[in-house]
Design goal:
The complex is a heterodimer. By secondary structure, chain A is an all-alpha fold. Helix content of chain A is 63%, strand content 0%. Chain A has 18 helices and no strands. The longest helix of chain A is centred in the N-terminal third of the chain and has 31 residues. By secondary structure, chain B is mainly alpha-helical. Chain B folds into three domains: 307 residues, no CATH class; 210 residues, Alpha-lytic protease prodomain-like, CATH 1.20.1510; 102 residues, Cation efflux protein, cytoplasmic domain (Alpha-Beta Plaits, 2-Layer Sandwich), CATH 3.30.70.1350. In chain B, α25 links the parallel β5 and β6. The chains are: A mainly alpha, B mainly alpha. At the A-B interface, α4, α7, α9, α10 and α12 of A face α7, α18, α19, α23 and β4 of B. Chain A: It is a multi-pass membrane protein. Chain A: This is Zinc transporter 6. Chain A: Heterodimer with SLC30A5; form a functional zinc ion transmembrane transporter. Chain A: GO terms for molecular function: zinc ion transmembrane transporter activity.
C-alpha cells in the first residue's frame, strides 16, 4: 500500500485550500455562531472525556459520543453554508449540494460506529465489571444534556432538521408517540405538547440522561455496577435506533435512488394515463412531445434530460450503429404511459399549447408493441398538471410556474429541499424517465 | 354473513367479536358488573395459589420432588373421582386405542413439565417461580409472536416484550440471591436421587449459579407449558372436554410415577419424621395449587374473555407473591403456614431484593401490555362493501405474503449466490476463517478463563462486522435494478467502501487515543499469552491478504491499470496510470478493484498490522523490557491505518459527490470537442458525467440543433462519440427551436420567458457554441 503517496504533493495546497474555503465561510455572519458553539463543544467534550476516564463509566462515554455527534452536526451545518456559496465547477458539474448529504450520512454512520464500539466494550465489561466512581457522573450528565439541548434548540441546523423530518420515524420516536397517545387519552389537555412528532435528537438526549440518572441512583444505593454497562448498551441501542433511519435516508440519496415522493407522483401519472406501449411514428412532432414531457416532469425534477427514440429510426440503427447496444437494454416495464387522447381538448382547453390546435395531435399507436418493442418516451400533449398536490385541474400557465419553475426563489427551506430532495430526483428520476433501462 | 362471503372474507362487525364465548358483539367494553364476581373469585384464587406455592416450597424441603408430584397427582385424581363426580370412564363417548396413546403422551409431557416446574421451585424459591411461571398462555404467545414474527402488533407489544425480557434479565443479573450463592458452593450437597443430580449437573455445566439456572429452567418450562396447552387443546376436544382429559392424563401419570416412587421409597431413607404432620400442608397445596386454580380458571375463561382473564389474573398473583416473599418468614403469617416446624427461623433464603422488585414491576407491566387484545382489525385490507353496507375486510393477504422459505433452502440459495462470484466468495471464505479463529479463541479463553483472550475474541467479532457488511454489499451489488434503484445496486459497493473507510478511521482513532493514554501512563503488561494469539491472527490475516491482493492484481491485469487507485497496488502496473492507462480501458469493466473490496482489503491489512505490532512490541518488552514499545507501536499503527484509509475515503467521496471521473477527464474533453463538430449542431449545455458504480459511467447532455436535422441521427452520433470516451450510460436531449417555443407556450411566466428567450438567443447568435469545460 503506497499510502504515503497521497500527501506527497498536494499536502500544502490542500491545507491552503481548506483555509481559503474556511475564510469564505467565516465571512458569513451566521457561521460565527456555529464556530462559537463548536469551540464550546470541543471544550465540553474534552471535559466529558476526562470525566469519563475518571469515573470509568462507559454509559457516560456513550453519552459523550452524542456530544461528539453534535460536533459533527455543527460541521454539517457549516458545510451547508459553504455549499450555498459554491457554484458548480466543471469537475463537479452538479454542484456541491451532495456534500451536505454526504456529511449527514457520514456523521450518522460515525455515530453508529461509535455505538457499535460501545457495544463491544460493554460486552467485554460484562465479563469483568470494573468499579464505577459516581463522583462526576451526574455532573457530566447534566453538563452534556444541557449543552446538547442548548445546541439543538439554538442552532437552526437545516440539513439535520430536514433529514429528521423526512426520514422514517425511529423506534424511539414510535414508542414515545405510542406512550404519549395513551397518555393523551387520559389527559386530553396534553395533546398539544406530546402529539406532534418529537425531535429525535432531543428525545435521545433526554432518554440518555434519564438512563444515566438511573445508573447514578442504583450505583449510589446498591453498588450495582452492572447497571452502568446495561445503560451504556441502552444508550448505544437508542443511538442506533435514532441514527439508522437518517443514514438510510441519506444513503438512499447517495445511491441515486428515485425519491419516494417522486415515485408517488410518477405513479399517479401512470395511473392517470393508463399504461400502454407507445412508439412515436415517424411523422410525430418530436420537439413538441419533448416540450410536453419536459413541462410535466420539470416540476418534479429540476435537472432533466429527455431522450426520445423513434421506432422507425431505430430499426435500421439496430443493424449498424453503436446505439444498438443501448437500445437493447430496454425492458418492458419502464414503458412510459400515455394518456388516452380522446377528450384531450375538451377536458382541458386552457392548458393545451397554443401550437396545438392548429396541428393535429401526434399520432400514437396503442397496444401495438411490435416485434421488437422499443419503448419510447412519451407523454401525449394533454397538459393537465398531474397530481402535484398543489393545484389540480384547470391551471393557467402562470400558476404552474409557481409550483415548479419558481422553486429556487421560494425560500430557505425550499432551497434546502432542492438540495437534499431534488438531488436524487435529478440523478435518478430523469434517467428513469429519460432513458429507460433494465 | 361469513358463509356468504367465503372463508377469507369477513364482514366487519363479525370480526370484532372474537375472544371468549361471553364477549359482546363490539369492541365496546361490556359493563364489568357482570364480571365482577368472577374477577373477585379469580383474584382470590390467585392469592391462594401463591400461598399454596409458598407452602409447597416448604414441603419440598422435606419431601422428595418425585414423591411430591406423585402425591399431588394422586390426590388430584382422587379428588376428581370422589368429590367432583366426573366419572371419566362411564360418561361420554368411549376412548379409542389411538386416543389412549395420545393421552399417554400427554401424561408424560405433563409429568416432565411439572417436574421442571417444581425443580425450578426448589432452585429459586417460590417468589421467583411465581413471577416467572404464572403467565397465561396468551401473554407468552404474543411475546413469542413479537420476538419471532414480523407482525408483532405495533410498538406497544414490542414494548411489552422488551419489558418481559428486561424482567428476566433483571432476575438473572441484578438479583443477589444470597442463599443460592451459598448453595452454589456445594452443589453436590444433598441430592436425593439420580434425577435431581442429573439436573444439577446440567445446570452446573452451563456455568451459572443455581438460582440463575432455576430462572432459565423456569423460562424453558413456561415455553413448554404454553406449547403443551396449545397441543393438548385438540386432544381435549377429541376426548370430550378438558376436565375429562385432565382426569385421565393425571391418572396415567400417577400410574407412570408409581413404580418410580416405590423404588425411591425403598432405596432411600425418608427425611420425613411423620407423614401425619404433612397431611395438612399437602391438603392445602393440593387444594390451592391444583384443584381450585384449575376450576376457577376454566370457569373464568368461559365467562370472560381470555385476555381479560389473563390481565386480572396476573396482577394479584404477582402482588401476593411479592407480599409473601417479604412476610412469609415473618410471625404475622404463621397462621397461614400450615407447616410451621421452621417457625421463627430467620431465614435468608430467596429474600426480596431490589432486582426482584424491579423485575416484578416489569412483569406486571408486560403481562398487562401483552395480554391486552391486539388491534388486528386495522391490518385487514378493505376490499369493498357488502350489499348490506357493512365493510368487508380481507385478512388472508398477510398469511399468503408471509409464506416464508424454509430455512435450509434459504441458506442454500444464499450460499449459492455468494459462491457465484469471485469477490463475495473470497470475502465469505475469509469471513469463515476469521470466525473460526475467533471461536477457537473464545472457546479457549473460556476454557482457560483468560480474560485477555476473550476480549480479543470480541475484538475479532467487531472486525468481522466489517467483513459481513462487505459481503452483503458484494451480494447486493448484483441485484437487478428496481423502480427505486433505477440504475441498479452497483453503487452499494461504493457506499460500503465508504462506510468501511469510516469504520477504519474510527478504529484508528480509538487505537490512537488508547496509545496516547498509555504513553502518559504505561501499564505493566502480561505478555506470555500474547505471542501465540497474535501469531495465529497474523497467519489468518496473511492468508486474507494473499487472497485479496491476488484478486486485486488479477483485476488490475484485466483492466490494464487505468484506475486512479493504482497507487496502492503492488503489481507491475504501478505506472499504468501515466503510461497506457487511457488507451485500453474503454471496453473493460472500469477501475480495477471496487471500493468495497478495497475497504475489506484495508481492514485485513489493518488487522495484520495490529498482529505484527503486537509481536514486535512483545519481543521488545521481553528482550529489553521496554514497556514504552507497546504504545509506540500502536501509535504507529494507528497513523498507518489512517493514512491508508484516506485515499479510499477520498475516492469514495468523489464518486458519491458525482465528480467527473478523473481518469476520463481528458477523453471526455476531447469527445465534447468532437461533438461540437457534428453537422447541424448549434451548441450543447449541461453536460454531466459521473461514475455511478465500478462499471457504469453515466452521463446526460442537452444538445441544440438546427431545425432541419434529424434528431435520432444526432442522438446516435453523440452516443457513439461519448461511448468511445467511456460513458456507457448516456441520455441525450435534442432541442430545436420549436422546443423552446413550445416550452414558452406551456409555461409562461416572467422568469421562464426570460430564461427561455436567453436560451433562444444563444441558439441564434451563439453559433460557435464554446462551452468551456
Amino acid at each position: 500500500m503506497g499510502t504515503i503517496h497521497l500527501f506527497r504533493k498536494p499536502q500544502r495546497s490542500f491545507f491552503g485550500k481548506l483555509l481559503q474555503e474556511f475564510r469564505l465561510v467565516a465571512a458569513d455572519r451566521r457561521s460565527w455562531k456555529i464556530l462559537l458553539f463548536g469551540a464550546i463543544n470541543l471544550t465540553c467534550t474534552g471535559f466529558l472525556l476526562m470525566w469519563c476516564s475518571s469515573t470509568n463509566s462507559i454509559a457516560l462515554t456513550a453519552y459523550t459520543y452524542l456530544t461528539i455527534f453534535d460536533l459533527f452536526s455543527l460541521m454539517t451545518c457549516l458545510i451547508s453554508y459553504w455549499v450555498m456559496m459554491r457554484k458548480p465547477s466543471p469537475v463537479y458539474s452538479f454542484g456541491f449540494e451532495r456534500l451536505e448529504v454526504l456529511a449527514v450520512f457520514a456523521s450518522t454512520v460515525l455515530a453508529q460506529l461509535g455505538a457499535l464500539f460501545i457495544l463491544k466494550e460493554s460486552a467485554e465489561r460484562f465479563l469483568e465489571q470494573p468499579e464505577i466512581h459516581t463522583g462526576r457522573l451526574l455532573v457530566g450528565t447534566f453538563v452534556a444534556l444541557s449543552f446538547n439541548l442548548f445546541t439543538m434548540l439554538s442552532i437552526r441546523n437545516k440539513p439535520f432538521a430536514y433529514v429528521s423530518e423526512a426520514a422514517s420515524t425511529s423506534w424511539l420516536q414510535e414508542h414515545v408517540a405510542d406512550l404519549s397517545r395513551s397518555l393523551c387519552g387520559i389527559i386530553p389537555g396534553l395533546s398539544s405538547i406530546f402529539l406532534p412528532r418529537m425531535n429525535p435528537f432531543v428525545l435521545i438526549d433526554l432518554a440518555g440522561a434519564f438512563a444515566l440518572c438511573i445508573t447514578y441512583m442504583l450505583i449510589e444505593i446498591n453498588n450495582f455496577f452492572a447497571v452502568d454497562t446495561a445503560s451504556a448498551i441502552a444508550i448505544a441501542l437508542m443511538t442506533f435506533g435514532t441514527m439508522y433511519p437518517m443514514s438510510v435516508y441519506s444513503g438512499k440519496v447517495l445511491l441515486q435512488t428515485t425519491p419516494p415522493h417522486v415515485i408517488g407522483q410518477l405513479d399517479k401519472l401512470i395511473r392517470e394515463a393508463g399504461s400502454v406501449h407507445v412508439r412515436i411514428r415517424r411523422d410525430a412532432n418530436e420537439q413538441m412531445v419533448l416540450a410536453h414531457v419536459t413541462n410535466r416532469l420539470y416540476t418534479l425534477v429540476s435537472t432533466l434530460t429527455v431522450q426520445i427514440f423513434k421506432d422507425d429510426w431505430i430499426r435500421p440503427a439496430l443493424l449498424s450503429g453503436p446505439v444498438a447496444a443501448n437500445v437493447l437494454n430496454f425492458s418492458d416495464h419502464h414503458i412510459i404511459p400515455m394518456p388516452p387522447l380522446k377528450g384531450t381538448d375538451d377536458s382541458n382547453p386552457v392548458t393545451s399549447t397554443p401550437a396545438k390546435p392548429s396541428s393535429p395531435p401526434p399520432e400514437f399507436s396503442f397496444n401495438t408493441p411490435g416485434k421488437n418493442v422499443n419503448p419510447v418516451i412519451l407523454l401525449n400533449t394533454q397538459t393537465r398538471p398531474y397530481g402535484l398536490g398543489l393545484s389540480h385541474g384547470h391551471t393557467p400557465y402562470s400558476s404552474m410556474l409557481n409550483q415548479g419553475l419558481g422553486v429556487p426563489g421560494i425560500g430557505a427551506t425550499q432551497g434546502l429541499r432542492t438540495g437534499l430532495t431534488n438531488m436524487p430526483s435529478r440523478y435518478g428520476t430523469h434517467n428513469r424517465i429519460g432513458q429507460p433501462r433494465p | 354473513m361469513e358463509e356468504k362471503y367465503g372463508g377469507d372474507v369477513l364482514a366487519g362487525p363479525v370480526f370484532f367479536c372474537g375472544g371468549g364465548g361471553g364477549g359482546g358483539l363490539g369492541p365496546v367494553d361490556v359493563p364489568s358488573a357482570r364480571f365482577s364476581k368472577y374477577i373477585v373469585l379469580l383474584c382470590f384464587t390467585k392469592f391462594l395459589k401463591a400461598v399454596g406455592l409458598f407452602e409447597s416450597y416448604d414441603l419440598l424441603k422435606a419431601v422428595h420432588i418425585v414423591q411430591f408430584i406423585f402425591i399431588l397427582k394422586f390426590f388430584f385424581v382422587t379428588a376428581f373421582f370422589m368429590v367432583l363426580f366426573q366419572k371419566p370412564f362411564s360418561s361420554g363417548k368411549s376412548i379409542t386405542k389411538h386416543q389412549w396413546i395420545k393421552i399417554f403422551k400427554h401424561a408424560v409431557a405433563g409429568c416432565i413439565i411439572s417436574l421442571l416446574w417444581f425443580f425450578g421451585l426448589t432452585l429459586c424459591g417460590p417468589l421467583r417461580t411465581l413471577l416467572l411461571f404464572e403467565h397465561s398462555d396468551i401473554v407468552v404467545i404474543s411475546l413469542l409472536s413479537v420476538l419471532f414474527t414480523s407482525s408483532g402488533g405495533g410498538p406497544a407489544k414490542t414494548r411489552g416484550a422488551a419489558f418481559f425480557i428486561i424482567a428476566v434479565i433483571c432476575l438473572l443479573l441484578f438479583d443477589n440471591d444470597d442463599l443460592m450463592a451459598k448453595m452454589a458452593e456445594h452443589p453436590e450437597g444433598h441430592h436425593d436421587s439420580a434425577l435431581t443430580h442429573m439436573l444439577y449437573t446440567a445446570i452446573a455445566f452451563l456455568g451459572v449459579a443455581d438460582h440463575k439456572g432455576g430462572v432459565l429452567l423456569l423460562v424453558l418450562a413456561l415455553c413448554c407449558k404454553v406449547g403443551f396447552h396449545t397441543a393438548s387443546r385438540k386432544l381435549s376436544i377429541d376426548v370430550g372436554g378438558s376436565k375429562r382429559l385432565q382426569a385421565l392424563s393425571h391418572l396415567v401419570s400417577v400410574l407412570l410415577l408409581c413404580p418410580w416412587v416405590i423404588v425411591l421409597s425403598v432405596t432411600t431413607e425418608s427425611k420425613v419424621e411423620s407423614w401425619f404432620s404433612l397431611i395438612m400442608p399437602f391438603t392445602t397445596v393440593i387444594f390451592f395449587v391444583m384443584i381450585l386454580d384449575f376450576y376457577v380458571d376454566s370457569i373464568c375463561s368461559v365467562k370472560m374473555e381470555v385476555s381479560k382473564c389473563a390481565r386480572y389474573g396476573s396482577f394479584p398473583i404477582f402482588i401476593s407473591a411479592l407480599l409473601f416473599g417479604n412476610f412469609w418468614t415473618h410471625p404475622i403469617t404463621d397462621q397461614l403456614r400450615a407447616m410451621n416446624k421452621a417457625a421463627h427461623q430467620e431465614s435468608t433464603e430467596h429474600v426480596l431484593s431490589g432486582g426482584v422488585v424491579v423485575s416484578a414491576i416489569f412483569f406486571i407491566l408486560s403481562a398487562n401490555i401483552l395480554s391486552s387484545p391486539s388491534k388486528r382489525g386495522q391490518k385487514g385490507t378493505l376490499i369493498g362493501y357488502s350489499p348490506e353496507g357493512t365493510p368487508l375486510y380481507n385478512f388472508m393477504g398477510d398469511a399468503f405474503q408471509h409464506s416464508s422459505q424454509s430455512i435450509p433452502r434459504f441458506i442454500k440459495e444464499s450460499l449459492k449466490q455468494i459462491l457465484e462470484e469471485n469477490d463475495s466468495r473470497q470475502i465469505f471464505y475469509f469471513l469463515c476463517l476469521n470466525l473460526l479463529f475467533t471461536f477457537v479463541e473464545l472457546f479457549y479463553g473460556v476454557l482457560t478463563n483468560s480474560l485477555g483472550l476473550i476480549s480479543d475474541g470480541f475484538h475479532m467479532l467487531f472486525d468481522c462486522s466489517a467483513l459481513v457488511m462487505g459481503l452483503f454489499a458484494a451480494l447486493m451489488s448484483r441485484w437487478k435494478a428496481t423502480r427505486i434503484f433505477s440504475y441498479g445496486y452497483g453503487r452499494i459497493e461504493i457506499l460500503s467502501g465508504f462506510i468501511n473507510g469510516l469504520f477504519l478511521m474510527v478504529i484508528a482513532f480509538f487505537v490512537f487515543m488508547e496509545s496516547v493514554a498509555r504513553l502518559i501512563d504505561p501499564p505493566e503488561l502480561d505478555t506470555h499469552m500474547l505471542t501465540p494469539v497474535s501469531v495465529g491472527g497474523l497467519i489468518v490475516n496473511l492468508i486474507g491478504i494473499c487472497a485479496f491482493s491476488h484478486a486485486h492484481n488479477h483485476n488490475h491485469g484485466a483492466s490494464q491499470g487505468s484506475c486512479h487507485s493504482s497507487d496502492h497496488s503492488h503489481s507491475h502496473h504501478m505506472h499504468g496510470h501515466s503510461d497506457h492507462g487511457h488507451g485500453h480501458s474503454h471496453g473493460s469493466a472500469g477501475r480495477g478493484m471496487n471500493a468495497n473490496m478495497r475497504g475489506v482489503f484495508l481492514h485485513v491489512l489493518a488487522d495484520t498490522l495490529g498482529s505484527i505490532g503486537v509481536i514486535v512490541s512483545t519481543v521488545l518488552i521481553e528482550q529489553f523490557g521496554w514497556f514504552i514499545a507497546d504504545p509506540l507501536c500502536s501509535l504507529f499503527i494507528a497513523v498507518l491505518i489512517f493514512l491508508s484509509v484516506v485515499p479510499l475515503i477520498k475516492d469514495a467521496c468523489q464518486v458519491l459527490l458525482l465528480r467527473l471521473p478523473p481518469e476520463y477527464e481528458k477523453e471526455l474533453h476531447v469527445a465534447l470537442e468532437k461533438i461540437q463538430k457534428i453537422e447541424g449542431l448549434i451548441s450543447y449545455r449541461d453536460p454531466h458525467f459521473w461514475r455511478h458504480s465500478a462499471s457504469v459511467v453515466a452521463g446526460t447532455i442537452h444538445i441544440q440543433v438546427t431545425s432541419d436535422v434529424l434528431e435520432q441521427r444526432i442522438v446516435q452520433q453523440v452516443t457513439g462519440i461519448l461511448k468511445d470516451a467511456g460513458v456507457n450510460n448516456l441520455t441525450v436531449q435534442v432541442e430545436k427551436e420549436a422546443y423552446f417555443q413550445h416550452m414558452s407556450g406551456l409555461s409562461t411566466g416572467f422568469h421562464d420567458v426570460l430564461a427561455i428567450t436567453k436560451q433562444m438567443e444563444s441558439m441564434k447568435y451563439y453559433k460557435d457554441g464554446t462551452y468551456i469545460m
